[in-house]
What we know:
The complex is a heterodimer. Helix content of chain A is 70%, strand content 1%. By secondary structure, chain A is mostly helical. Chain A folds into two domains: 7-41, no CATH class; 58-297, MetI-like fold (Orthogonal Bundle). Chain A has a two-stranded antiparallel sheet. In chain A, strand 1 (43-44) and strand 2 (53-54) form a beta hairpin. By secondary structure, chain B is of the alpha/beta class. Chain B has a domain at 194-350 and 421-466: 3-Layer(aba) Sandwich (D-Maltodextrin-Binding Protein, domain 2). Chain B has helices at residues 2-22, 48-59, 65-69, 90-107, 118-130, 145-150, 164-170, 173-176, 201-206, 218-228, 248-258, 276-290, 320-327, 365-375, 378-388, 395-398, 401-404, 407-417, 428-442, 448-466; strands spanning 83-87, 112-116, 137-141, 180-181, 184-185, 188-200, 230-232, 235-242, 311-317, 333-336, 350-358, 420-421.
Amino acid sequence: MRRRLGISGRQTIWAYVFLAPAFLLFALTVFFPMVRAFQFSLYHWPLGSAPKVFVGLDNYERLLTDDSLFQKALVNTLYFTVATVIPTLVIALAVALLLNRPGLRARGVFRTIYFVPVVTSLVAVAFVWRVLLEPSFGLVNGVFRLFGLHGPGWLADPAWALNGVALMTIWRDVGYYMVIFLAGLQTIPRDIYDAAEVDGASRWQTLRRITLPLLNPSIVLAAVIGVIYGLQLFTQVYIMTGSPQRLAGGPSDSTTSIVLFIVQQAFRPLEMGYPSAAAIVLFGLIMLVTLVQLRLIQRRFEY
Amino acid sequence: MLRIRARVVTTVAVVSLLVGACGGASTPSGSIASSSEPTGSSSAATPSSAATQSSAATQSAPPSQAAATEQASPPNIALVPVTHWQHQSDARAALVKGFIASYKEVTGVENSFESIPYGDYFTKLGAALEANNGPCVFQLPANILAEYQKRGELAPVPDDVMTSADIESTFSPASTRLLKFDGKYYGLPTDVQTMLLFYNDDLFRAAGLDPTKDFATWDEFREAAIKLTKSDGGQMSQAGLDITGSPYQWYYSAPTLAYQDGLVNDSTLAINYASEPGYQVWDRLTSLVTKDKVDSPQFLADQPKFASGLAGMTLREYTFSGVFKQTAPDLKYSVHLPPPVADKQFAAAATTSWSYAVGSDCKDQPSAWAWVRYLTSEASQRIWITGGGELPSRTAVLNDATLSADPGVAVGFKSLADAMPYDSLGWDDVFSVQQKIWDSIVLDGMDVKSAVDAGAKGEADLYKQKGVTN
């Protein structure tokens, strides 16, 4: 005797049916490559018909103990993430607060101006900044010279190159996070600000006690996205530091990021095992940092 | 039906080749223009002739039928279209398209061609070959042919195209040295280049130097570079030598010329340059920036200083004799043999070369090899020389007095006469190792010996990692 499913059971089955295409696509394009990458990471896996040799965790051991370039890439990536995410979020929040002020004229124009870099091709922007940061004739050092100062060597100087990449990234990303913060600010009820004003709260107190706590979900979102993007640094470095005469990541490996390391290790020697191990390490790093971030900055506030 | 079509195609191909062979001795359309006078010394040459030819040939009609049929007697096979990939270069892409057109005229077969930006070329090629979806014909630096051969991705040159003995008697040893494995050749040479010194003649005269003379010693060269360097308000305004943006031509050539057996020992794969002449060469090269300050990494960083008229000299491949004419048409420059860097040097110039190879998974290998033979034929090489700014790998062309009568080409030919090949067993990967030596000394202030030793160790480790064996 067949047992009839209830409405809830049928709904569940239909839900899975509708989810199946997306899940299949996700499994094929995300899960399967991840599993394969993990498999590759346990092998010496040259492209072509050369034998694939199982090496266990040797690739991981070499990465974390022997490979000074990977360690430098790791430090560069973390430095870049910190050097871009914090200033970008602070500037974006300040701009969002200014643009959220009632009575501000031409608010739409300002929002557009700040958002234009976000919708511009990152490759194009990186090329332009490469010229702007040229030490002897670039516009940025030209401004320094106006004040009688000698600007840094930027992309030509190992001590400054990553800062040059970070400067461009901050300029470009401020608009993106500004939009996230503006959306968040507009969800904060006006009544709360009115009540605070009646109670005699100063601007600083209002910001600290009302705006920032209630903006926390937007700040968490922006911080998580920013850190993930930062840890995946690639395009800016590839465009701003590479040329037909020079491999990207210079000078002196000072801008080599983990993703650039993975690409260069994979496609120059055409060896998939070792860079797959680096990709798995990066995946673990992103997951770990994201979890720590959520634990540290996520707060629940209600008024 | 298919058999009939194949027979028709074969007949047409054979007839065409026979007809073409009758005119095989005629001069190709991209032939040498009348030469201009050399500017003076034994090797110096103004670029006018070579570069003008380069520009003219690039824009001219496709190479003549003579090129297509010259010494072409491909096997009696039904030719079919094949795919051809190489990295992007405007001049070379135009020439390949011209060759495709003339090959079609002769054989009725139109090959497909893809010109891929250099930055993506090896990535795309490697992945495509791995997926058995690669091109039939492709271009590889001679230095990395071994890696592709070891991965089983290359087909050997069949005897009915050229025997090993033919290859050795036809092409210069420098261009074929890295193409042979287990007694078989896996590619035919193309794009031969030597490193030459370019002078900005106007800046030379302004500094009281003679732009028609070669430098006989390293010290003469150094002193000239210092004289050519200018500063304004404590900042460099003119480099004596454009070297920091692209030092690789120096560190490919100078250490190569200091070791009779090459940079890499053939039997042990030891890296030779971590020893005395190598230290001297690296010291002299980097001292140009660290001590003599004839260039600075921060002066026009990554910008073409020489082409902008803001550097007195630069070391570049022969092809730049044409490139500068196109990118800096107002620049008055001459081309010279470079100065000796090491105290003892075994040749005047170093050479690099590429090769045309056929994929082992190519289903139409006879057609692919017929195309490669056509591209590397004597008549085709004459067109490559005039239109693509490259030097010949065929000794018959190298010995052709009609070509070397042109001063622009003559300097290149002279440099090639006893040139030594850059023989590191890698390309971009070894480049980054050697660039690191440069950066460590110039940017990080490391002492020369430590930097060179670390680089040599890095290169040896790279070979082990790649599984390169002798």
